[in-house]
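User: Teach me something about this protein's shape.
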Amino acid sequence: MTVVSRAGCLSRYRAGVRIAIALFDGAEELDFVGPWEVLAYWAQKVSQAEVEVVTVAATLEPIRAAKGLRVLPDRTWEDVGKIDVLVMPGGQGTRPLITPHEPLHERLRDLADGGTLMTSVCTGSLVFAAAGLLKDRPATTHYDSLDLMTWLDSSIETRPDDRYVDDGDVVTAAGVSAGIDMALHLVVRLDSEDAARQVKREIQYDPQPPV
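Assistant: First, the predicted structure itself:
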């Protein structure tokens, strides 16, 4: 997998770091809950620096995720303030977000231009592709959506065999559970390998699928 190491870069966030996980109707549950568990555990139990993890959506109304889970966002895009790391989940709810002239695209471009570390899980990368953030970059997504990613932007170098692809200021993860791997990688980038190992151990993430 492609990895651009930025381990221990919390020092650049002297006033603390804010991680925002985007929510929208139809978002795949594990795409946002998996990274939330990893990043929030790190923020609350492991990190020596001030780290805030919040959810952000168009409004504060409940969103209904892909399998029916209802979630109340913490912030709206208008009041979330500075975002240091954005996590964009996937799910069928991304389909309306990849249409031309979707207002979210400009917001995403502004975040990227302002130095936000842009990360995605599953088909969240399609939203990045539609916004032009993956042009001439390596990236991945859910295996069923690789062709759609190429259709959105033929300049993208798709990585079908990678769990996540770190291209510096943009990190994309493959389908669903790969978001947990990516979130642990973000802990390495933002803190250290030791911190990521501690989170991994405490949330007891040691995949040994029964099938």
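Now, about its shape. The chain is about 30% helix and 20% strand. The two ends are 24 Å apart (CA to CA). If you'd like, I can walk through any region in more detail.
User: That's plenty for now, thanks!
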